[in-house]
Amino acid sequence: MAWPDELPEVWRRRSRYGTPACRSGIAACGGGAPESGPRPAIGWIVVLVGRCDPIYAVDFLDDLHIAELELIVGLQQWPDWVRPVLELVSVFGTDTFFLLCLPILYWCVDPRLGLRLGLTVLVAASTNAIGKLAAHQPRPYWIDVRVRPLSVEGAFGLPSGHAQNGTAGLGRLAVMAGRPWAWWTAGALTVLVCLSRVYLGVHFVSDVVGGVLLGAVVLVLVLKLESPVTAWWLRLALWAQLAASAALSFALIGVAALANAPYAGWSPPAAWSAAGQIAPESLDTIVTMAGVLLGTLAGASIMYRIGWFDAGGPLGLRAARWLLGTAVAVSIWYVQRELLPQTGVVAYTGYAVLALWVQLGAPVTFIRLGLMSRARQAQAVH
């Protein structure tokens, strides 16, 4: 098949950004294979349309990214005092922020609220990590030296995790509060988080828009499915709940591996050299989340069987719970990260144990130490 005369020039223009779709599109149409890249996805589209010129339409993200770069460069011309403010705001979109809030809610306020928030953010973060692997898109500072890396990231850019986690997590908190001011606050913080990610040079506007949309979908689905799924889960025997917890955690890793499968043999292109040493296809984040999912579901299931706890009490008592529980949690994390071999099995097991401590080990310990009392009656989490 002969190439149109203008195609080599188009490829040279697009290959500056090393977009996988562009590189694979040429190979899928029968041309010489450029840098390593995925072939199946574009090949399917070429078969459907019957010609090679869809490269212009299929790889539209390249054109969109080019257009967005000027906006990012312009935002980074803002006064220097803006940077620390937006760096602080950016924290509200991290899964780490919400997972640190979880023990406070779970141990010291209301275990049901803490569990709901934790699972919502876990679903958002997991689907985001899978989405990044499926999209394989760069970050602004990876492809244009004019964009200053005011923050450094090693994962792919689309969709934005901060935008997705912020939308789902802050939205869930607004639902819990049930007040108009909570929704306005959640909305304003989400907008600021999105702005911060673009300003810091780690996301295109399209990345954060995609993150917000996916976060909203996660929030709506969680709210809609929570009651029926919880009712079904509570009807299962404990052994079935534990088996399902393990199966779901392994399924999460499997889905992520499938998202990576079309990109077999891919490596970061030379055009992304500004990113430094990165391994954006790594499944480390997914493995961590899978371990947390196992520990969370298993711990909550066992806690329900032995009876929930009362997270109330004097402020000093609640503070003592948080200090003790956090000290043990940090110890588990330190042993896993610093003293044991850094393997996927160790990471999975370590984070599963950490989540199990938060959900089950800490409350049982608090009750035995007299820092917490059992709930007056069994409480289902729904």
What order do the helices and strands come in, and which of them pair?
Layout: H1 7-15, H2 20-28, H3 40-49, H4 55-58, H5 60-75, H6 82-90, H7 95-108, H8 111-135, H9 140-143, H10 161-177, H11 180-199, H12 205-235, H13 238-260, H14 284-306, E1 309-310, H15 315-339, H16 344-368, E2 373-374
Antiparallel strand pairs: 1-2
Helix pairs in contact: 2-3, 6-11, 7-8, 7-15, 8-10, 8-12, 8-13, 8-14, 10-11, 10-12, 11-12, 13-14, 14-16, 15-16
Strand content: under 5%
Share of helix among residues? 55-70%
| Helix-strand string | HHHHHHHHHHHHHHEHHE
Biggest β-sheet: strands ordered side by side in the sheet: 1-2
Number-wise, the strands total 2
Unreliable residue runs: 1-58, 378-382
- How many strands, which pairing sense, and closed or not: the largest β-sheet? 2 strands, antiparallel
Radius of gyration: 23 Å
Residue-averaged pLDDT, rounded? Answer: 82
> What would you call the shape?
globular
Q: Tally the helices: what do you get? A: 16
N- and C-termini, Cα separation: 60 Å
- Please give the domain count: 2
